[in-house]
Design a protein that fits this description.
349 residues; alpha/beta; two-stranded antiparallel sheet; 13 strands; 44% helix; elongated
């Protein structure tokens, strides 16, 4: 009995200070502005499952999309694209645009996207009256773009197909975003996510019992949310670094996919143009692994006689002048970057 009493006394001496420390840390984190888990948006409002492409935007949307840096209205047409209604004239100078969130204009009004700026600038030039059909979907991999190209081509019957290729996201070819219970998540992350109270949570544990306990902590503790987020961030960076180490192989695979798609579309009467999506960081530096991918894809396109919009020189000049080409607090292109992309694309017409 004496030993049991001593054990509980010792345990109390350990647990009580620990509990006090955790409460102090919790209070400190909340004072510093940290919060329990907050999900910024409910994707189930605007993504839908697709049997071929995994997911698409929902049809006929009119919803606000926001984060702490911007708010923008997103409207989609009856086909589920962030574009006006497609009234297609097969005899017109049609241009089909494929891509991901950069090409869809994530964080910007529709009219500020490079495709819309390009269309306005080209209209009437050399008696061209182009009509652009923008079928870009956030998060799409090159395989998803290629898979959807055939059906879109038969619908639009374009003379040209412009493909926005996000060179910092080539790992999507191995780990794509897929549809999961109303949300888009990485295929590798599905085992760590669960839906609670109509929100998607990312967990550290795979066991359902442990996930339920973790859910309570995430919902109520700013400290746990901070620690869990940091652990997931470090784990994701480790995985991403492994992908980066294989980035040359990914770039070559991207080049093969683009060449194969270009061949199919050329046989059907359309020319492919590759528009590389590149970014700089907060210090104005373009990541070396992205630049390497850029050069690999550029060379492959040249070897296959596929048009490649050489954006890098213009982007570098702009950054050297002190310009920022991304939305503050968000890595997506800002209005100036879209304007530059449209200007460089115009040089090919």
């Amino acid at each position: 009995m004496h030993h049991r009493s001593k054990f509980f006394s010792t345990l109390a001496l350990v647990l009580v200070p620990l509990a006090v420390l955790l409460l102090v840390l919790e209070g400190g984190f909340r004072i510093a502005g940290y919060t329990p888990y907050v999900f910024e948006r409910n994707e189930s409002d605007y993504v839908r499952h697709d049997s071929l492409l995994e997911y698409t935007y929902a049809k006929n949307l009119d919803v606000p999309v926001w984060n702490e840096n911007y708010q923008v209205e997103v409207r989609t047409n009856s086909l589920g694209f962030r574009d006006e209604e497609w009234n297609i004239n097969p005899d017109a100078n049609n241009i089909l645009v494929l891509g991901d969130s950069f090409t869809a204009g994530f964080g910007l009004p529709k009219e500020k996207r490079w495709a819309d700026i390009f269309e306005d600038s080209l209209s009437g030039r050399n008696n061209l009256h182009p009509k652009i059909y923008n079928a870009a979907i956030s998060g799409y991999s090159l395989q998803q773009m290629a898979a959807g190209a055939s059906g879109l081509f038969s619908k639009v019957q374009p003379q040209k197909v412009i493909i926005g290729v996000y060179l910092a996201g080539l790992e999507r070819m191995k780990d794509p975003y897929i549809y999961f219970e109303g949300y888009t998540v990485r295929k590798s992350q599905v085992k760590y996510v669960g839906k609670k109270e109509n929100q998607l949570y990312f967990f550290l544990f795979r066991n359902e019992f442990l996930q339920n306990r973790e859910y309570s902590l995430l919902k109520h503790s700013a400290l746990y949310n901070f620690v869990q987020t940091r652990i997931r961030y470090l784990a994701y960076n480790r995985q991403k670094n492994e992908m980066i180490s294989n980035n040359e192989a990914l770039a070559k695979e991207a080049g093969y996919l683009l060449s194969e798609l270009s061949g199919k579309l050329k046989d059907a009467g359309a020319e492919v143009i590759v528009l590389p999506v590149i970014q700089h960081n907060a210090e104005g530096v373009f990541d070396p692994y992205v630049l390497k991918a850029y050069e690999i894809v550029k060379e492959q396109m040249a070897n296959q006689d596929i048009d490649f919009v050489d954006l890098l020189p213009a982007f570098k000049i702009e950054v050297e002048k002190g310009a920022n080409l991304w939305i503050n607090g968000d890595s997506h292109w800002n209005e100036r970057a879209h304007q530059l992309a449209a200007e460089e694309l115009l040089k090919d017409f």
